[in-house]
C-alpha cells in the first residue's frame, strides 16, 4: 500500500442523469423490438417488462433507430433520451418461434478475411440459429467462433479454429426476424383457448397482478393508426382487472392511402374512419421529427405527459397541451414537413377533438380535448386533464381501500373511509390540484336492500381545474385619458 502524503485527485466515470419518475402516467407500450440482439430472444415475447432506464430497455429488448420495423424503440428513445422519464412497461409481440415472424436464410459461402473474420450480411439474424461450417464440419459457437451484431446490421464472425480460419470460405446459414410479418392481429392478441396464454393487448390484464402497478396510458405507436388496434386500445381503457382505468393515445395516419390524412383539412374525416370517439382516448396528428428520426406522435405525447406529471408532484392535474415537445418539427410518414398555424390547429383539429403541434417560439403540443369532443361537452369526458385526474383518483381509491373489503360494514368503517378521503381531498385543494373535493355517505344511495347485500356506496364530488384554454383581454379606447392629457382636465 502506498504511503499517502500530499494532495491527490481521482476520477470516476460520468454518472448519467437519473430519470424523473411518474407513476400517474405509467405508459404501457405494445409493439415490436429488435430482440435478435438478445442472448435469449424468446424471453422478451408477449410479456410485460418494466424498465426504469434506457439500459434496461436495451438489455431486455435490444434497441434500433429503425422505428418502422421496431416500433417500441420510439417510446424507449423519447422517454429516456428526450424527456428522461421513467418507468415504462414494454410488450413485444415479435416472436422468433412463430413462422410468420422469421425468415430462413439458406446456406451460403462467406469469404474468410485475412484476419480470420467474416462479414455475414443478413439483417436481424438470430444468433442462436447461426450455423457455421468448414466444408461439412459444423463449428461450435464460443469455441470455434464468436459472432456478434455489427453496427451496420450485419453479423461479425471471428473464427477461433485455426483450420477454419485458414479456409477460403465457410458455409453459413441462419434464421432472421421478419418484422413485417407482424400483423394487427399480433398486436391486438388474444387468449389461447387451450393454454389460457395471453398475447398482445390482452396482456394489459397482467400489469397489476404481475407488477403491482396500474397502467396510466396505453400506447401502440406505429400500430394505433390501424382501426382494429385503435378499437382494442379504446376497449381496454375501462375495467382493467375489472376495476382500473387508463387513457390511450391514438395516432391518426398521415398516409392518405392508409385511410389517413396528408393535409390537415382531411384529419377530421380520417379520425371518423379510424373510429376514435372514446372519452378515454386522445387522437393525435401528425408525426414528430427530431432530425432524421420520425416518431408517431403518441410516443412523444406519452413521454411529454409523464414529464408534465413529474413536474407537478406526479399528480395529473395539469394539461400536457402547450408544453415543449423537444422536437425539430412535425412531418408526414414520408418526411414531408407539416407547418400548421394556430388558426388551422384550433379551427380544424382542436375543434374536432384532435391534438396536434404548433411552432410558437419552439414546438409545442396543442390541444386539450379528448377524442370524444365535440360529441360530448361533459367536463370529465371532454378535457383530457380532467379525465386523467378522474382516472387517477378512482384507481387510488380502489388501491387504498381494498384492505377494507370484507371488514364489518359498521359506522367505524364508513367513517374511516369518509374521513380519509376528505383529509386527502383537503390536501388536494390546499395544493391547488383541484377546486373542490368532498366525499359523503348518503342515506338515499345506501338503501337497506343494498346494505343487506353487503354493498356500501360513498359519493365523491371533485372538481379538477379546467385548462385555461382561451384567455381574452378587452381593449377599449380611453377618451377621458385623452382629454386629461390634452386639456389637463379643465373645461375649454
In words, what does this structure look like?
The chain is α/β, with parallel strands linked by helices and 492 residues long. It has helices spanning 54-61, 72-83, 162-165, 184-188, 207-211, 227-235, 267-274, 297-310, 342-349, 379-382, 384-401, 411-430, 448-452, 479-487; strands at 20-21, 27-31, 49-51, 85-86, 88-92, 102-111, 117-120, 131-134, 137-138, 145-149, 155-159, 169-177, 217-219, 238-240, 244-245, 247-251, 281-284, 287-290, 293-295, 329-331, 337-338, 354-359, 363-366, 434-440, 459-464. Strands 3-5-2-13-16-17-22-23 form an 8-stranded mixed β-sheet, with helices on both faces. Strands 6-12-8-9 form a 4-stranded antiparallel β-sheet, with no helix packed on it. A hairpin with a 5-residue loop joins strand 10 (145-149) and strand 11. Helix 2 runs parallel beside helix 8. The termini are far apart. It comes from Candidatus Faecalibacterium intestinigallinarum. This is Phage tail sheath family protein. InterPro entries: Tail_sheath_structural.
Describe this structure in a few short sentences:
Helix content is 26%, strand content 22%. It is of the alpha/beta class and 492 residues long.
Uncertain spans, ≥5 residues at pLDDT below 50? 13-17
Strand order of the largest sheet: 3-5-2-13-16-17-22-23
What would you report as the Rg, rounded to the nearest angstrom? 28 Å
3D shape: globular
Strand content: 15-25%
Structural class: alpha/beta
Biggest beta sheet summary = 8 strands, mixed
Number of continuous helical runs: 14
Amino acid at each position: 500500500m502506498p504511503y499517502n502524503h500530499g494532495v491527490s485527485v481521482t476520477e470516476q466515470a460520468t454518472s448519467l442523469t437519473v430519470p424523473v419518475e411518474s407513476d400517474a402516467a405509467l405508459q404501457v407500450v405494445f409493439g415490436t423490438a429488435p430482440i435478435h440482439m438478445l442472448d435469449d430472444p424468446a424471453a422478451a415475447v408477449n410479456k410485460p417488462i418494466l424498465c426504469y432506464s434506457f439500459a434496461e430497455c436495451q438489455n431486455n429488448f435490444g434497441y434500433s433507430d429503425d422505428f418502422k420495423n421496431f416500433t417500441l424503440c420510439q417510446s424507449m428513445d423519447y422517454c429516456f433520451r428526450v424527456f428522461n422519464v421513467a418507468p415504462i412497461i414494454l410488450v413485444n409481440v415479435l416472436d422468433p418461434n412463430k413462422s410468420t415472424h422469421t425468415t430462413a436464410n439458406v446456406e451460403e459461402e462467406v469469404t474468410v478475411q485475412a484476419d480470420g473474420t467474416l462479414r455475414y450480411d443478413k439483417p436481424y439474424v438470430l444468433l442462436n440459429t447461426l450455423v457455421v461450417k468448414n466444408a461439412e464440419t459444423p463449428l461450435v459457437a464460443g469455441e470455434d467462433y464468436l459472432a456478434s451484431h455489427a453496427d451496420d446490421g450485419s453479423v461479425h464472425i471471428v473464427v477461433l479454429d485455426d483450420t477454419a480460419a485458414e479456409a477460403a470460405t465457410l458455409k453459413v446459414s441462419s434464421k432472421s426476424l421478419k418484422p413485417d410479418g407482424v400483423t394487427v392481429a399480433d398486436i391486438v392478441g388474444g387468449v389461447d383457448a387451450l393454454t389460457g396464454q395471453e398475447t398482445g393487448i390482452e396482456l394489459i390484464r397482467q400489469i397489476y397482478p404481475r407488477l403491482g402497478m396500474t397502467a396510466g396510458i396505453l400506447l401502440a405507436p406505429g400500430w394505433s393508426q390501424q382501426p382494429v388496434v385503435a378499437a382494442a386500445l379504446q376497449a381496454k381503457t375501462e375495467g382493467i382487472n375489472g376495476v382500473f382505468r387508463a387513457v390511450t393515445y391514438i395516432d391518426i395516419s398521415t398516409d392518405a392511402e392508409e385511410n389517413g390524412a396528408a393535409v390537415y383539412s382531411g384529419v377530421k374525416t380520417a379520425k371518423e374512419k379510424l373510429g376514435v370517439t372514446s372519452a378515454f382516448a386522445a387522437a393525435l396528428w401528425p408525426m414528430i421529427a427530431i432530425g432524421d428520426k420520425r416518431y408517431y406522435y403518441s410516443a412523444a405525447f406519452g413521454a411529454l405527459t409523464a414529464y408534465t406529471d413529474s413536474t407537478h408532484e406526479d399528480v395529473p392535474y395539469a394539461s400536457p397541451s402547450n408544453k415543449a415537445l423537444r422536437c425539430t418539427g412535425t412531418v408526414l410518414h414520408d418526411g414531408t414537413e407539416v407547418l400548421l398555424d394556430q388558426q388551422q390547429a384550433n379551427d380544424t383539429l382542436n375543434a374536432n377533438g384532435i391534438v396536434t403541434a404548433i411552432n410558437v417560439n419552439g414546438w409545442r403540443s396543442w390541444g386539450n380535448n379528448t377524442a370524444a369532443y365535440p360529441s360530448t361537452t361533459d367536463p370529465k369526458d371532454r378535457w383530457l386533464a380532467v379525465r386523467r385526474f378522474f382516472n387517477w383518483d378512482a384507481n387510488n381509491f380502489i388501491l387504498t381501500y381494498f384492505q377494507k373489503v370484507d371488514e364489518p360494514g359498521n359506522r367505524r368503517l364508513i367513517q374511516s373511509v369518509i374521513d380519509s378521503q376528505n383529509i386527502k381531498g383537503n390536501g388536494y385543494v390546499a395544493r391547488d390540484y383541484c377546486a373542490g373535493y368532498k366525499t359523503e355517505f348518503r342515506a338515499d344511495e345506501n338503501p337497506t336492500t343494498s346494505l343487506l347485500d353487503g354493498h356500501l356506496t360513498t359519493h365523491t364530488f371533485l372538481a379538477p381545474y379546467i385548462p385555461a384554454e382561451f384567455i381574452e383581454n378587452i381593449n377599449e379606447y380611453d377618451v377621458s385619458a385623452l382629454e386629461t392629457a390634452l386639456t389637463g382636465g379643465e373645461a375649454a
